[in-house]
Amino acid sequence: MVAAWARNVEYGTIVEFRKKTRSAEQNAKLHAMLGEVAEQVVWYGRKLDIDDWKNMFTASLRHADVIPGIDKGTIVPLGMKTSTMTVEEMGNLIELIYAFGSDPEHPVQFKEPQESDVPHASDDGSEADLLPGEASNTEPGGSSETSSPDQPSGSNFLTDEDKRNLGEFIVRLNAAVGADPDVVRMARNSFAAEQRPLSKLAKEKAETITGHFRDACGKSDEVRQAALAFTCALAQIDEQDLAVQP
Fold first, then answer.
1. Domains, the chain, ranges and CATH?
2. DSSP alpha helices (H): ranges in the chain?
3. In a 3-state reduction of DSSP, which class is residue 144?
4. Per-residue pLDDT tens listing for the chain (246 residues)
5. What are the DSSP calls for 30-96, one per residue?
6. Where along the chain is composition biased (Basic and acidic residues) (predicted)?
7. 229 — alpha (psi -120 to 50), left (phi > 0) or beta?
8. Within 10 A of 69 (CB to CB), how many other CB atoms are there?
């Protein structure tokens, strides 16, 4: 199945196989628990915020390495990012927070997050849970259909609507290219949250487009221009038709 799919992707496409990262439910639970710890615990005479506690627990989970900071007398822990954690790692982090809260020296009462607290797109480092256009519409009788029909397997056909949406997607991501690739990710998540109707092929191309613009971050203007040209070709649209920032 993978080999058959690979024969139909664009030349130069890069595919990465990795474990599934944290779920939206885990992310919501983590931040709810961190908020409760921040509200209820005084740490060595200080109240810490959610980000401080996230760094504390992540450092404990990963037995973080520390290095001297730029400012004299400071130290900086490495590897504190939680957005790339696997489901297993996030589960271990949540269990660690539970264990911390059960210590009688700093007891914490935890509440389960409500379903409405589960994010669908996040700017805190996680990918949006829905790919662009992957939202479903429930029909009478309980059946569910995607907002636009998927193209036949192996098809290289993009609808006019696909091209319009991908064109806007490219414009947004191109404008987000800078020193920090996370800005591109946030632009991608913002677009995903709008639940645009895209075919399966268009959704796959959108992820490839995201990767190219992320790779262009911190690079020269020539690299950025090359990414723009390539992604326009990938989306089967004319670069001159896009209102992109120079």
1. 24-117 (1.10.3790.10), 158-246 (no CATH)
2. 2-6, 24-40, 50-62, 87-101, 160-176, 181-193, 200-216, 221-234
3. strand
4. 556 666 676 777 776 665 655 577 777 888 888 999 999 999 999 999 988 898 888 888 878 777 887 778 888 777 667 776 788 888 888 888 889 889 888 899 887 655 444 444 444 444 443 343 333 333 333 333 333 434 443 445 788 898 999 999 999 998 988 888 888 888 888 888 887 888 888 888 888 888 888 888 888 888 888 888 888 888 888 887 776 544
5. HHHHHHHHHHH--BTTB---HHHHHHHHHHHHHT--EEE-SSTT-EEES----TT-BHHHHHHHHHH
6. 105-123
7. alpha
8. 10
Query: Minimal CA–CA distance to 23: which of 112, 89, 71?
Result: 89
Place of tokens 């669908």: 120
